[in-house]
Amino acid sequence: MTLADLRLTPHERAAHLGADQLRQLVGLVEHDDAADPFPVVGVDAVVMVCGNATQSAQYFVAIWGMTLVAYAGPETGQRDHKSFVLESGSVRFVLTGAVDPASPLVEHHRRHGDGVVDLALEVVDVDRCVAHARAHGATVLVEPHDEADGHGVVRLAALATYGSTRHTLVDRSRYDGPYLPGFVPRGSGYVRRPDVPSPLFQALDHAVGNVETGRMDHWVRFYNEVMGFTNMAEFVGDDIATEYSALMSKVVANGNHRVKFPLNEPAVGRRRSQIDEYLQFYGEPGCQHLALATADILGAVDALRAAGVEFLDTPDAYYDDPALRSRIGTVRVPVGELKRRGVLVDRDEDGYLLQVFTKPLGDRPTVFFELIERHGSLGFGKGNFRALFESIEREQEARGNL
Ligand SMILES: [Fe+2]
Predict the structure, then answer these.
(1) pTM for the predicted model, two decimal places
(2) Options 2.60.40.10, 3.40.50.620, 3.10.180.10, 3.40.630.40; which CATH number does 203-399 get?
(3) Ligand 1 centroid distance, CA of 22 (Å)
């Protein structure tokens, strides 16, 4: 099989993404599903609980350039909550907020604040995946079942992962509706500014989980054994420590590398790490950041900054360091262009990547976004960890949480 034969999902094709583009954006590789005990196509949706999903949906449409495509709520017979389905390229976000004061989502939001509750995975065979997961000790939260409407049938199940996070498993091969049964198509009246690139991001590169001290290897094994994911990278010791704080990270990925889950745990340091802060304010393990793959990080950052999005700042010293300049070599724009926007750069044996991190998206210092533009590198910006963590520590200090 050549890369040109890579099977794209209908969702990717609808977003006009090609195999070569996905290889560059997210490091997509060829993979034989037949030999895989738990074949995963890709991330189906990132489901977030929001304190105000109505306004969050407007934020992601107006600021992050996403497109509202579907909706469920009281008007469609869903009395408990409202859910807005947004897309950007092949990325699908579902934002859910309570309507009924008695909704369990109210208590969930009180405990955790805004956050990711479900990293839903599109799979080829829900029943086979659940059987494999159960045999390897996973907790099955929802047994395989069909849901149907006039658009066809979706096969669904759900597995528990770290904290209260879940992986819904979705087989939508017999379904052509806008999301799931119960949702209706819906657009928004938002008029995009013609000078803003669209979309700002095309694919989900990775979703990071923060887990408890001493539990990283447990969750790595969980993804190895339950889902057949393989280990891509690990970062321990000096890679990932500053003067004050430390963490450890390992990355697991599915066969085709559409799904990459770095897993972080705090490590002993002189002061509290960003992972400790996350665990305190989220209340338990959870999803720390979502990395959005973009083909134009400079255009995206310009548009997002102009819309008021705040990014972690990078000191000028980062760009002026001769070691950085010799390490990164030539990238597609002059370093001054990166410096002006606070975009970080890292290079490894395969190529380079550009990345930038937002401040926390909501009120609590928990979930945030990364923008990443890959040029061959399949890494995660290891060369930037120290600069990144020192930047986060400055924010923690300002919050009184270092
Ligand atoms: Fe990341």
Answers:
(1) 0.95
(2) 3.10.180.10
(3) 17
